Amino acid sequence: MTMYPADSKILIVDDDAFVREMLSSILEASGYRITTAEDGVDALEKYEADQEIQLIVSDVNMPRMDGIRLIQELKARNLEVPIIMVTSVNSISVAVDALSSGAIDYVLKDEGIQETIEITVKRALEKHQIKQHNKRLVAELAAKTREQENTLSYLNAIIGHIPDGLLVTNERARITLVNPALGGMFRQAAGPVVGRDCRELFADTLGPILDAISPTERTAVTVQVALEGGRIGSAIGTAVYRRVEGEEDEFIGYLIIVRDITHQKEIERMKDDFVSTVSHELRTPLTSVLGFAKLIAKKLDGVIFPLVPRDDPKVERAVRQIGDNVGIIITEGERLTKLINEVLDLSKMEAGKVEWHLAEAEAGELVKRALDATAGLFTEENLTLVEEIDPDLPRLYCDHDRIMQVLINLLSNARKFTDQGQIRVRVGKAEMGGEAAVVFAVSDTGCGIARENLAAVFDKFKQVGDLLTDRPKGTGLGLPICRQIVEYHGGTVEVESELGRGSTFSFVLPAAADRG
Amino acid sequence: MAKILIVDDEPHIRLLLEQTLEDFEDDGVELIMAENGAEALEIIKAERPNLVFLDVMMPKMNGFDVCKAVKNELAMDDVYIVLLTAKGQESEKHQGLDVGADVYLTKPFNPDEIQAMTSNILGLA
Question: Are A369 and A491 within one domain?
Fold first, then answer.
């Protein structure tokens, strides 16, 4: 605590000039600065005019305004200044009055006053300073408390209004906090739950999430849970850490947020139903169109055309055109079928509804099978197919049919856009984030893709073929499906191309983890 | 004499299957038509066809239920059932095979494939 300054300014009030003189000289000798007044009224004026005065030493009996009144007047004006009363030896009762009115101390006007006044002033100044200091501390504390209360009520208001359910536990899974939204989601959370064991209270719903969270790995766990009234919730749980200066973060509990996804689920279901219904409604007429077109083509070739005399060039042309036209109906019908299948496929993949059949696989084996399946595409004389398969590749863990689907797609794309030159299939070792991986690349010497179109090739319904009128049209969904499949496996797809020189489509799949 | 039952509520699909398979009539195969599942089940019980092309989504009784009745309840293992669906969902394929279908085909089907399959099943080279 800082001491009061030794040159504190003191106001001495007495109607007796001799006493004023005496007290002034005593205190001045101790280093204080002195100012004087003749009575209470004079003192009040002087004190109000001089901000430096830190202590008043006042006589009791004075004309116009006595010492006791002076104390009361100062108090009435909210002026906080310590006052020492100087009283006569034979009037202790006055001293008591003075103290009870608020004087900080008193001294007796006797022969010992020379010694007592000095010590009393010193004590009074110290006492006053301590008092002021305490007052400041109390005020600061009150302000801090108010600030904390504000912060707390602010946080409480936020937590209370979060539409998602919130549950927090300590490190032993005892519930420390829930918000009102959670009470509406679980019957168990309607009453008081703080202090209960989350694993026990929510055994069928939120409890298992805590077991799934690993406090060492800071990843969130998402689980679908059943809510009150047949609703569906998505619960995300995570471990909570407190930052500790200079130490490792301290694990202090779990936090779970529950969102009602009933509506979302309903929309998803409606979308699935819609896609499935549309697919059904499209397939039924398409079956007739495509089926009859194929029967017609067969009957024309097998029964009708052989009987048609070709002498007339018009008849000859009509026969040729009918044959071509039926062929176009069939090709386009098949394209439509493919489109329906791919829309259905992609929609299921995006909704995460595909059943994946994961198993260990040999990368080279998959490529050989894909090449067998597409062998029919590579019969042109001026097109060579080159295979480069690293014999020593790490094993994969993947859905064989789906990866084959990707490879076949890339191979038939390469063929589709390449008239002559070379199609090269390369399978080699690669790395993904420091882990072993396998890269598959299909390169062609075809028309290539302009730089500005490269980024869009994996987007839905974007086709390089759009720019090339003489190319067979695809569905625009092949590459987006490839990307979905590869990304499901934790891999990445990539394309490099130069217009007029050719393209390389590649994807990388992580190697199978050591599966014990 | 071999019998083939064609079951679909869409008349055009029945016609398509009929025309696809009519060449087999020269080999003495009889083609029978049904418009819904209930009718199909009656015919299967009465005629005991060797091969059934069975649509899935139909009024009265769907293809899955017909298949289940024939293969499980009636235990008619010698009736070869080809389910034809327009839905094309992978989960339905499992369902189809679970109820005992011998083959599960997605529409649109290829007439050539239907012909080849029929020759194979009926042993007509």
Answer: yes
Domains contained in chain B, number: 1
- Best probe of the B interface among A288, A303, A399, by most B CBs < 10 A, is A288
Give the one of B16, B88, B91 whose C-beta lies nearest to A283's C-beta. B88
Q: Are residues A177 and A284 in the same domain?
A: no
Quick: pLDDT tens for A132-173.
899 999 999 999 999 999 999 999 999 999 999 999 999 999
B19 CB neighbours in chain A (<8 A) are: 292, 295
What is d(CA A258, CA A202) in angstroms, rounded to the nearest whole number? Answer: 13
Q: Are the Cβ atoms of A337 and B111 closer than 8 angstroms?
A: no
Give the Cα separation of B68 and A270 in Å (integer).
28
Number of domains in chain A: 4
Put simply, the chain B residues between 10 and 39 with a CB less than 8 A from any chain A CB are 10, 12-13, 16, 19-20
The closest alpha carbon to A213, from A205, A221, A203, A225, belongs to: A221
The DSSP result for A150-166, as a single string, is HHHHHHHHHHHH-SSEE
| Cα–Cα distance for residue pair A152/A364, rounded to 1 Å | 62
Q: Is the pLDDT of residue A118 over 50?
A: yes
Q: What is the pLDDT of residue A424?
A: 92
Are A256 and A269 in the same domain?
A: no
The answer to whether residue B108 neighbours chain A at the CB level (below 8 Å) is yes
Would A86 be classed as within a structural domain? yes
The CATH number of residue B22's host domain is 3.40.50.2300
Q: Are residues A54 and A76 in the same domain?
A: yes
Tell me if B89 and A355 make a contact (CB, 8 A cut-off): no
CB-based contact, B73 to chain A, within 8 Å: no
- Domain region containing A52: 9-137
Residue B91 clears pLDDT 70, i.e. is over it: no
Q: How far is B75 from chain A (nearest CA, A)?
A: 30
**CATH number of the domain where residue A451 is located:** 3.30.565.10
Cross-chain CB nearest to B111 (options A276, A291, A337):
A291
The pLDDT assigned to B53 comes to 97
Indicate the residue among A314, A334, A350 that finishes a domain: A350
At residue B116, does pLDDT exceed 80? Answer: yes
Residue B106 has pLDDT above 70, yes or no: yes
Label residue A462 by pLDDT band (50, 70, 90): low
Return the closest-CA partner of residue A506 out of A421, A360, A406, A416.
A406
Instruction: Name every chain A residue with its beta carbon within 8 A of the beta carbon of B57.
Output: 280
Contact A333 B108 (CB under 8 A): yes
Domain range spanning residue B76? 3-122
Q: What is the mean pLDDT of chain A?
A: 87
For A357, half-sphere exposure in the C-beta direction (CA atoms, 13 angstrom radius) is 6
How many angstroms away from the CA of B82 is the closest CA of chain A?
A: 16
CATH number where A195 lies: 3.30.450.20
pLDDT band at A109 (very low <50, low <70, confident <90, very high): confident
Distance CA B19, CA B5 (A): 13
What pLDDT, on the 0 to 100 scale, is given for residue A476? 79
Chain A positions with Cβ closer than 8 Å to B: 276, 279-280, 283-292, 294-295, 298, 333, 337, 340-341, 344, 348, 354-355
- The answer on A201 and A113 residing in a single domain is no
Q: Do A286 and B108 touch (CB under 8 A)?
A: yes
What sign does the dihedral B100-B101-B102-B104 (CA atoms) show? Answer: negative
